[in-house]
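User: Show me an example of a complex going from sequences to structure tokens.

Assistant: Sure. Here are the input components:
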Amino acid sequence: MILLNWILIFEFLLLFCAYIAWWAGKLAARDRPDDALYQFTLVFWRTFRQKPLPLRAPVLDTEEGEGEYVDDADISSFSGNESDEEAPSARRGSTDSPDAPVIRQSTLNVRVIPNSPRDQIAGLEGHTLRIHVMADADAGAANKAVIDLLISTLGIKTHQVLLVRGHFQSQKTFQISGLDQDTLDRKLAAFE
Amino acid sequence: MIGDFPKYLDQAKTLAPDKRTAFMTVVVFWGLAECVYYIVLGVVIIVIGRRLINAALTAWRETRHDPS
């Protein structure tokens, strides 16, 4: 049997080990939900299957309800056939209307430096915003400080900011709802 | 099979001309089948290997508590 066959067998063996580790992590997570092995295997299999990260339903930007969070039921009702009297939310989201709401979302890459002298945005490095926070990188304190800083800087609300990647890293990715990428880039241009 | 190709060529020379054609046809088609097998194997290994390494690195980065 040549080397290629052995490599394939080795890869399947690794996948099998990852599967076993996932089960072991699942058992361990019964007592400790933040078990490192379980988190590792969860991210591993999610990435391996190339399944996109679960994202919260987007905020629909409307005239009267700026930055209002809309749950799945409301979104599904947008495409429904209910009459205007029965479903005011459907009327608000009707695509026939010229002033139909548009879904605005943007992504923001952030590099966080914890334990800094003060909370501030240090600048924009390429497509990554460099943020200094006083909080320690422990128990989500730095994440909270970063979100607070983004809210005050961008003039948005808490529920519009979602940390989608890098919960335990200094390099983080945020999803900003209710703000399109161009608007966000314009706001961040001031930090270049 | 592919490594043994010179041996089969030598073997073909010892055969009668009417049998040689059929023998060479089988040898060539087995060789082609083996080539296709290893090409597909290579592609599968690359696809799985890339995903595996990428997933492992991503999981490592995501779950690592970065002190910086």
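The lines above are the inputs; the final block is the predicted structure for all two components together. Chain B touches chain A at residues 38, 41-42, 44-45, 48-49, 51-52, 54-56, 58-68 (CB under 8 Å).
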